[in-house]
Amino acid sequence: MTINRETAQLLERVAAVFRVKEGDTFRVKAYNNAAAVIENLGEPIDNLWKENRLDSVPGLGEGIQKYLSEYFTKGRVRHFDSQFKKVPAGMFSLMSIRGIGPITAYKIAKKFKLTDEKTAIKKLSLLIKQKKLKNLEDFKDKSVLRLTKSLKINSTGKGRILLSEAFKIAEEYINYLKKSPHSIEAEPLGSLRRKLATVGDIDLAVNSNNPSKTMEHVLSYPNISSVITSGEKVSHVKLKNGFEVDIKISEPMGWGSLLQHYTGSKMHNIHLRTIAKDKGLSLSEYGVKKGKKLLRFNTEIDFYRYLGMQMIPPEIREDGGEIELAQRNMLPTLVEQKDIKGDLHIHSDFDYPSSHDLGESTLHEILRQAQKQKYQYVGIADHNPKITGLSEKETKRILIERKKYLEKNFRTYEKSVKTRTLKLLIGMEVDIRPDGDLALSDKLIDTFDYIIVSIHSSFEKSKEDNTERILNALSHPKAIILGHPTGRIINSREPIPADWPKIFDYCAKNGKMLEINAYPDRLDPQEDLIKLAINQGVRLIINTDSHHVGHMELMKFGVWQAKRGFAGKQDIVNTRPLQDFLRVLK
DNA sequence: GCCGTTTTCGGCCCGACTGTTTTCAGTCG
């Protein structure tokens, strides 16, 4: 569990205790809100604490900040522990089941003395089998049935998944939805539409002239394994692959409002509502209420205009300053996929004793794909040869052979397609070693057009050490790109700590580029760091880190990540045409 | 507990769906 999830869960639990033990629902809301904010943070919350930046997070006030400090220092919070003593611990695991909130969880856990988190769900299943749950007032047959269903789903349910995975599932469903004669259009909603690196539930919307017929179509999707809830406007289903999908239906008149409302984020919408309220308006998924009159909106542009601001692109609707900019008509024009003119981080299938994994596609395949994507330049950046067991002389021989291989294949490619519209750059991705040295001698590095420097080992080093390592690596004149800067692997490796403002300052002053790595389980760096880098004047480059020709199409994920960091075309170096780009490279 | 270009007190987003109910509480997003 990541530190952000762990911290969010702690606060959610405190909120749950307050919910069942006290009447103050606003305090509950404050804790839940703080939990949500932490969960969606772009960087580890304990990093913020270490740097005394907790007060920069909206939703964390004096009180919760104090508790968090105690938590990170001592590993526990006295005040929280005393709250937890008031309830049977089993209630917390029960809350992970859909349909069970704090109140139901408490009721069940108390009645049946479920004091152990680890066994509570198992015991609940047993109680249902033994038909003992009906002993609980309010719990009639239908409730038990619903619970049984949820429990079954719970055991096979999945957590947050990669954007790329959610995207694929959503795309298939959307294609199906569009086939209904009554549907006009279908779109993703929520974090999927905002292009968050990970997605919890998949939410979709259909614009329809005949909602009831369309809902029938929605529920007839062949990949559904069970319908969890279904109403006339909203249904929630579970697919055969285990993923849950929410589908909302709107008539054309209210399409813009629905799309806007369910795209969120929650914090973005709450901020909009406070603005609306000041104008005497009230917002909902149906539109804007002015007194008793409901104003509906066909498009999101109309909706935002009515509130007195520019249309805000979904990718930046996180209440991270976008609303204030939109009100002043100062939103940046964000970078688009069509702006990208090259990709400098591609691994080829040239076979040699490499320090890390080789690519799987030939140069011809890579070049063909690059042309398909209308690129003007392509950079091959294989990993450096391994450092143990190879003499400098052998390494040199490998690199010469590789260069010959790439150049020769490039020439035969040009001949075969009879065009010269593509420029090949020969680079290399060179490891930043634990001590900050590069894994290739200066002399050999000089033979490349450019190198990308990346950390591939010793991820546990301190913030100071990492900062030194990176600055040292970037000091080489050919080291112009810092590859996957934080090294995070989503759901498996945390980003490394480093003094990013200091590193960005160095990059800005020395023309070094920060890579936005488009590979879906990296999407590195996170949006907050992209924002910071742009503010410090750092040049960015979006690369795919392709190890297969198919990966080159993942560029869109990097573009979306850049957008989430408020990046405009001018901030991204590989939007520049070839000659311009080559000047920057020098 | 959080928050403030009317406020350091007094507000705190809004609605669908479900189950068990004749008006609502709990849960979810």
Describe the 3D structure.
α1 packs antiparallel against α2 (25-39) and α13 packs across α15 (300-306). It contains 24 helices and 17 strands. The model has no long low-confidence stretch (mean pLDDT 90). The two termini are 43 Å apart. β12 (377-383), α18 and β13 form a beta-alpha-beta unit. By secondary structure, it is of the alpha/beta class. It has four domains: 2-154, DNA polymerase beta, N-terminal domain-like (DNA polymerase, domain 1, Orthogonal Bundle); 161-250, Beta Polymerase, domain 2; 254-327, Beta Polymerase, domain 3; 339-585, TIM Barrel. A seven-stranded parallel sheet has the order 11-12-13-14-15-16-17. A five-stranded mixed sheet has the order 2-4-7-6-5, with helices on both faces. A three-stranded antiparallel sheet has the order 8-9-10. The structure holds one DNA strand of 29 nucleotides.
For the record, the CATH architecture of the largest domain stands as Alpha-Beta Barrel
**Binned strand content:** 15-25%
How big is the Rg? 27 Å
Give the tally of structural domains: 4
Number of strands: 17
Name the overall outline. globular
Q: How are the strands of the biggest sheet laid out side by side?
A: 11-12-13-14-15-16-17
In the CATH hierarchy, the third-tier topology of the largest domain is known as: TIM Barrel
- The CATH superfamily title of the largest domain: Metal-dependent hydrolases
Helix content: 40-55%
Unreliable stretches: none
Largest sheet: 7 strands, parallel
